[in-house]
Amino acid sequence: MADVLTIRAAVARAKEDGLPVSEYTLRGWIKAGRVPVVYAGTRALVYYPNILQYIKTGDPIQPPPVAADSKLHYVRRA
Fold first, then answer.
1. Which of 15, 19, 29, 75 would be 34's cystine partner, CB 3.0–4.6 Å?
2. What is the number of alpha carbons within 13 Å of residue 14 lying toward its C-beta?
3. DSSP conformational letter for 58
4. Per-residue DSSP letter, 17
5. CA 8 to chain centre
């Protein structure tokens, strides 16, 4: 199974795994910054092991820092 999922797919997988997580709850965790997401257009993609880790430990997951010399650049629209 893929580990990067949409919010709805992550909730469906959690239910298959016997975890009581609702879509509303997961969205709340994301909004509060407890579970990191990446946006692809308007879709939020979540790494499923991060959800499991948050449920197990209760500690917010911090996204890895971006190095100052990274090749990431913001693109401004004209």
1. 29
2. 26
3. -
4. T
5. 12
CA distance 71 to 67: 9
Q: For residue 57, what pLDDT is reported?
A: 87
How many Cα atoms are found within 13 Å in the side-chain-facing hemisphere of 76? 1
State residue 4 phi and psi, 5-degree precision.
-100, 115
Provide the CA 49 distance to its chain's centre, in angstroms. 9
Cα(76)–Cα(60) distance, rounded to whole angstroms?
31
Return averaged pLDDT per consecutive 10 residues of the chain, 78 residues in all.
90 94 95 91 92 87 65 65
Q: Which residues pair with 39 in a beta bridge?
A: 44
**Residue 30 near residue 45, CB atoms below 8 Å:** no
Q: Which of 14, 44, 16 is nearest to 30 (CA)?
A: 44
In terms of Cα–Cα distance, which of 21, 17, 54, 33 is closest to 7? 21
- What is the spatial distance between Cα 22 and Cα 29, in angstroms, rounded to a whole number? 11
